[in-house]
Design a protein that fits this description.
single chain; about 260 residues; alpha/beta; Rossmann fold; 7-stranded parallel β-sheet; 7 helices; 7 strands
Length: about 260
């Protein structure tokens, strides 16, 4: 079981001030990793840091707008300045505007693609440069979605971005394999989590009858149920896994 051990590893989690990213950051910290919380929400990000550090972990906050290349480069540099290395990069920051495609504004499309796809690439690229410099490989993990493999009404730009993430994972995994850098994604299904910008504009929430019909496990997942898959992909237990999209969806995409 020691192959699952990530004690002492340094991990960055983008979008970790709330929701899924927060749960993953806390989970990685509980597993022994040193955590960098990267987000634009400083107050909430510092709260995540406090939770981790109060529990005996080691965490810092670095303000990061993933759509800004200089911010992404600065994130990596500050991480290395503080911890001396980077082992795990979790690209998680995300946003969406849930509305019919016919009324989606150009600015809304651009925002989603910039955060959910371009931002992932920029963070991964900056992280890979550092990992290559270190010469010992690393693990880059992206938060995909069932929306990357199935169509979802009201989420045209989001599904395009997540489909792009899946292809990005595959391409980067091939390019960076020679450096020992593994690139994978986990793809959540219905999770009890509210994404940025979807608090007011949301698809109708599924009732139990709908969940029973579309999800074999007959329920939504919890953010904490994404932690173990991420630890697995980050650890040596997944040393021969790269370019993979790990579905964490209660069986939704198996139907």
């Amino acid at each position: 079981m020691n192959k699952f051990d990530i004690t002492g590893k340094v991990a960055i989690v983008t979008g970790a001030a709330r929701g899924i990213g927060k749960a993953i950051a806390i989970g990685l910290a509980n597993a022994g990793a040193k955590i960098v919380i990267a987000d634009i929400k400083e107050t909430q990000g510092q709260e995540t840091v406090q939770i981790i550090n109060n529990a005996g972990g080691d965490s810092i906050f670095i303000y990061t707008d993933v759509t800004n290349r200089e911010n992404c480069n600065n994130l990596i540099q500050q991480t290395v300045n503080h911890y001396g290395q980077l082992d795990i990069m979790i690209c998680n920051a995300g946003t969406d505007f849930v509305k019919p495609a016919i009324s989606l504004l150009e600015q809304e499309w651009d925002t989603i693609i910039d955060v959910d796809l371009k931002g992932y690439f920029q963070c991964a690229q900056s992280a890979a440069k550092q990992m290559i410099k270190q010469g010992v490989g690393g693990s880059i993990i992206m938060n995909s979605s069932i929306a990357g493999v199935v169509g979802i009404a009201g989420c045209a730009a989001y599904t395009a971005a997540k489909g792009g993430v899946n292809q990005l994972v595959r391409s980067l995994a091939i390019e960076w394999a020679d450096y020992g850098i593994r690139v994978n994604a986990f793809a959540p299904g219905y999770i009890n989590n509210t994404m940025e910008n979807t608090e007011k504009l949301r698809l109708p929430q599924p009732d139990q009858q709908y969940l029973d019909r579309v999800i074999p496990l007959k329920r939504k997942g919890e953010p904490e149920e994404l932690v173990s898959p991420v630890i697995f992909l980050a650890s040596e237990a997944a040393s021969y896994i790269t370019g993979t999209i790990l579905m964490v969806d209660g069986g939704y995409t198996a139907l």
